[in-house]
Amino acid sequence: MHAPSASASASTTRLHIGSDADLAWVRHEVRQAAAGLGFSLVQQTKLVTAASELARNTLVHGGGGHVEMTHLEDGAGRGLRLAFTDEGPGIPDPELAMTDGYTSGGGLGLGLSGAKRLVQEFTLDSRPGRGTTVTITDWTTVLPAARTGGS
Ligand SMILES: Nc1ncnc2c1ncn2[C@@H]1O[C@H](COP(=O)(O)OP(=O)(O)OP(=O)(O)O)[C@@H](O)[C@H]1O
Ligand SMILES: [Mg+2]
């Protein structure tokens, strides 16, 4: 059971990704968390769509893994960070993988690139042979000056 709270401390939930049923559960939990943080309906849907693609990649390409959902608070707004991790084959050429239409097999090749467009922050960290972590973050309040710089 969840304890929706307004506390400033970060809380993290880990969900296993090992089956299609888990994908549905991830979508449900992300929607609940985003709604609970006060994200607009449009923003909730964008985040859930991105999460759904990344979770499917974790399952299909990564051979399963997990997602960690972390509630953030930085004074200017509240955020939700989702980190999808697997210990699969990794992505040898991340730049290529991020290209619209690139798929290593049978997909549309729009999952990674599409997910990146749907959220405010996106990072891909992959080591061939070791696995992949893709992290996305959305905030309730966007401060362009403070949040457009990435590193
Ligand atoms: N977690 C992962 N582990 C290993 N390779 C991955 C992972 N995620 C993505 N990839 C690689 O990046 C490619 C592009 O991913 P993307 O999600 O954009 O397309 P796709 O999964 O092939 O098709 P779809 O449009 O159906 O999602 C994949 O084909 C795969 O080779
Ligand atoms: Mg995909």
Explain the overall architecture.
Residues 42-142 form the Histidine kinase/HSP90-like ATPase domain. Keywords: ATP-binding, Nucleotide-binding. Pfam families: HATPase_c. One of its GO terms (molecular function) is ATP binding. This is ATP-binding protein. By secondary structure, this protein is an alpha+beta fold. It has one domain (12-147): 2-Layer Sandwich (Heat Shock Protein 90). 35% of the residues lie in helices and 26% in strands. The protein contains five helices and five strands; from the N terminus they run βααββααββα. It has helices at 20-36, 41-60, 94-97, 111-118, 144-147, and strands at residues 12-17, 65-73, 78-86, 121-127, 131-139. The protein has a five-stranded antiparallel β-sheet with strand order 1-2-3-5-4, covered by helices on one side. β2 and β3 (78-86) form a beta hairpin. α1 (20-36) packs antiparallel against α2 and α2 (41-60) packs antiparallel against α4 (111-118). The longest helix is centred in the middle third of the chain and has 20 residues, at 41-60. Residues 53, 57-58, 61-62, 86, 88-91, 97, 102-104, 107-113, 132 line the site of adenosine-5'-triphosphate (ATP).
